[in-house]
Amino acid sequence: MIRLRIQHSTWPRRALVLTDTPRPDCPDCDGDGGIESFYGDYDTGEYAGSEWDPCTCWDETRRWTLLPLPRRPRWLRQQHPDTDPWAEPPF
């Protein structure tokens, strides 16, 4: 059974996509979609990183584009460093 949700995607193009989600009652991953494994350095035993192993209860590559979103006009994308939109107006 597929459990679907809508997400906003930015790559390769801005769009609304329909994606699969992990099974919430999965006994292997408890609904997280994978298992995180922590590992340490062999010599010191300190934390050296973690690895993410995806669970078989979902496929993170299963996606369908619902609606391509348009690009913002160039004049809205330009940055204006001299104006601060959050600055308070003078009194």
Helices and strands, in N-to-C order?
EEEEEH
Class by helix and strand content?
Answer: mainly beta
Give me the count of strands.
5
Distance, first to last CA: 60 Å
Largest sheet: 3 strands, antiparallel
Overall tally of structural domains: 1
Kindly report the oligomeric state of this protein. single chain
| Overall geometry | flat
Separate helix tally? 1
Overview of this structure, please?
It is built from one helix and five strands, in the order E-E-E-E-E-H. It has 91 residues and is mainly β. The chain has one domain (4-70). A three-stranded antiparallel β-sheet has the order 1-2-5, with no helix packed on it. The protein has a two-stranded antiparallel ribbon with strand order 3-4. Strand 1 and strand 2 (15-20) form a beta hairpin. The radius of gyration is 21 Å and the shape is flat. The chain starts with a strand and ends in a 14-residue tail after the last helix.
